[in-house]
Amino acid sequence: MQSIDLDHLVQPDRVHKSVYTDQQLFDLEMEHIFEKAWVYCGHDSQVKEVGDYFTMHIGRQPMVMVRDVDKSVKVLYNRCPHRGVELCGNQSGNTGKGFVCSYHAWSFHLNGKVKAIPLVKGYDGTRMTPDSPDCSMVAAARVESYRGFVFASLSKEGPGLVEFLGEAKVAFDDMCDRSPLGEVEAVPVCHRVVQHSNWKFFMENQLDSLHPSVTHQSTGVSARKVELRLKKEKGEAPLFFHYLSTFASSFDQWDSVQTVNFKYGHGILKAYMGLRPTDPDTVKYEALIKQAYGEEKGEEYLARSIHHVLIYPYLSVQSPLQQLRCLRPMAPNKTLSEIWHFRLKGVPEAIYERSLWYFNLVNSPATMINADDLENWTKAQLGLQSRGGEWVSFHRNYGGDTEKDGILYSNNGTSEVVMRNQFKAWDSYIRAAIQPSAKA
Ligand code: FES
Ligand SMILES: [Fe+2]
Question: Region 115-140: what's the mean pLDDT?
Fold first, then answer.
């Protein structure tokens, strides 16, 4: 293993390009960030019935989230203890009352404990008798959920889920509080995109307010033209034109939107879009919320100023529109993203359609918005793999951040404080991992 000089790689105002390209650093990230921190597995509603399961990766580990007979949600390594075969080959489904391996039919209860082994006498006198824990599936070290969103950590050590989420737990509060019942349900359609670039580009981009008016100019300007024409001809334009036209806001407008940067690299981009029109559906919906929570609380929930909440290092939540994107890194230059949207329980269909429109128009792989971002990240990866320079610059508004109670603010929405804060977290995860060997 090559020695790693973190002080050189991650500086307060710039980072070395190898943090996006190097296999050894990627392996360290997987082992010491993704396979230790709380990672999002999925939503409660994805595994409603006993035996329902959903598979995903936590770092490099294939995992399965499953509804047990006692109705609790378990997260297990998707691996047969006999010869290591993955037990669930599909993305999701129902596995009945247990798992059965497709290779030699060892079977397991939904909590992972071995149920039966064919011709079990063949193991007499060996270490693999059914009473040995070695014969059962291995569970994630910790599983917790917050408002129906299920997370697992593969490490016994570390902060609890609520402590880890910190202020960023508002992502799930904001999403659920917009339902009069306080709950959401995952829409069981998930787009999957493999981006040919490092996972960090995605995370940095979500709160990068300098890029939309450039990267998404063609879509934003076209949408604005149609939106203005419809307003002139019909008095109003559907809200979804607004989703796209705001991308063409000026640099000054973007610079006036605040970001708030939390511990562990999490952060918020405050709202930049008006999402409270006065059409009959919205008026009815807002009345429902105020009826459920009271005038004051209801208004507080409807007026929360959030566009994106980032939970570092893998989650981007657009809570006012019930969108969630989750990263599953595959290689230094390859990242899978899962793109989900949610239905607010107890609201009119027209309000759900807003989420669906945003899902399809902005976040799906079919939109120009997602395609434009993906193209930038691929080109960024190629540029960083070149010998044309060593550094990635995060100098924008450097020195202008203010800190209060460990939270970083910038008066400039386009400040690269976002990236500086994410690398502060990255540095502390990796430093904690390599320091013991550095000392030895
Ligand atoms: S590998 Fe699963 S039963 Fe043999
Ligand atoms: Fe973008």
Answer: 96
Answer whether 109 contacts ligand 1 (Cβ < 6 A): no
Mutating to test ligand 1, I would choose from 79, 85, 102 the residue with most ligand atoms within 8 A of its C-beta, which is 85
The CA distance from 142 to 35, in Å, is 12
CATH number for 39-146 (one of 2.102.10.10, 1.10.8.420, 2.60.200.30, 1.10.274.10): it is 2.102.10.10
Is the CB of residue 80 below 6 angstroms from any atom belonging to ligand 1? yes
- Nearest one of 298, 347, 300, 299 to 322, comparing CA atoms: 347
**Dihedral sign, CA of 212, 165, 10, 411?**
positive
Q: For the whole model, what pTM was predicted?
A: 0.95
Helix axes 280-293, 349-358, angle to 10 degrees: 110
In the reported structure, the alpha carbon of residue 398 is separated from the centroid of ligand 2 by a whole-number distance in angstroms of 22
Whole-angstrom Cα Rg for the chain: 23
Q: How far is the CA of 369 from the centre of ligand 2 (A)?
A: 6
User: What residue ranges do the domains of the chain occupy?
Assistant: 39-146, 167-209+257-434
Angle at 281 between CA 276 and CA 284, to 5 degrees: 90
List, for residues 309-362, the tens digit of each pLDDT value.
Answer: 999 999 999 999 999 999 999 999 999 999 999 999 999 999 999 999 999 999
Ligand positioned closest to the Cα atom of 216: 2
* 235-255 per-position pLDDT tens digit: 989 989 999 999 999 999 999
- CB of 114 closer than 6 angstroms to any ligand 1 atom: no
Give the pLDDT band (50/70/90) at residue 151. very high
CATH architecture of 167-209+257-434: Alpha-Beta Complex (3.90)
Query: Ligand 1: which residue has its CA nearest to atom 4?
Result: 104
